Amino acid sequence: MTSAAGPPPEGGWRNGAAAYADGFATESPALQAARQRALTSAGAFGTPAPVEPAVGALLAVLAASVDARAVVSIGSGGGVAGLWLLQGMRTDGVLTALDGDPAELRAARRAFTDAGIAGGRTRLIFGTTAEVLPRLSSGNYDLVTCSGPPADYVQHLPGLVGLVRVGGSLICHGLLADGRIADRSARDPQSVAWRELARKVREDETLTSAVLPIGAGLLIATRRS
Predict the structure, then answer these.
(1) What angle is formed at CA 46 by the lines to CA 42 and CA 50, rounded to 5 degrees?
(2) Which side of the chain, N or C, has fewer Cβ within a 10 Å radius?
């Protein structure tokens, strides 16, 4: 006698769904090469891992949904997120990528060159968030994406939000990594910083926000006023 199979374990379902979402996102050979270089760099030097394919595809959709012409990518991630954003942006759009690691900026430049991106469509800036924010125009950007230490974003949240035009969005990647943000006993600096950032975004009455459990987790906030 056989019995009906029950549902797969929750972890297995989630892993399968994530694998399907990543597989659904088609990456060009140039993007695949950029991803491999970024993953190697992350493993060897401890730099942040690049955004997952499903996250990249969502970034492209978000850029396309607002017909993005001006986008800021904080934490270049070897150019992986940038290549996805450029796919969704207008053909005359300009991506500004900034990073405090010169090796990461060089990797991003190579990724853009290998993908055949025209030089005028990207602007690469070396520097920390604190150093570069004053050099960027307030209210001038359709999207601002962040992939780096959350403590930087907590401290500079007003300035980051200020870069975004009304109707544009601030996107932060990584808050659900390892699931520690939901564990109140986790008091490490990164988990505490992510909780603080999420709280401030949620309580900001000028923003409409959501957390998406995709990749390492996305915090998305759209500026209403």
Answers:
(1) 35
(2) N
pLDDT tens-digit readout, 43-85: 555 567 789 999 999 999 999 999 999 999 998 788 999 999 9
173 noted as active-site residue: yes
pTM: 0.89
User: Cα Rg for the chain, rounded, in angstroms?
Assistant: 18
185: helix, strand or coil:
coil
* Closest by CA position to 76, among listed 92, 54, 53, 95: 95
| Cα distance between residue 182 and residue 175, in whole Å | 10
Instruction: Give the other-Cβ count within 10 Å of 101's Cβ.
Output: 16
Backbone dihedral angles phi then psi of residue 104, each to the nearest 5 degrees:
-65, -40
Burial of 125 (0-12, 13-18, 19+ CB in 10 A): middle
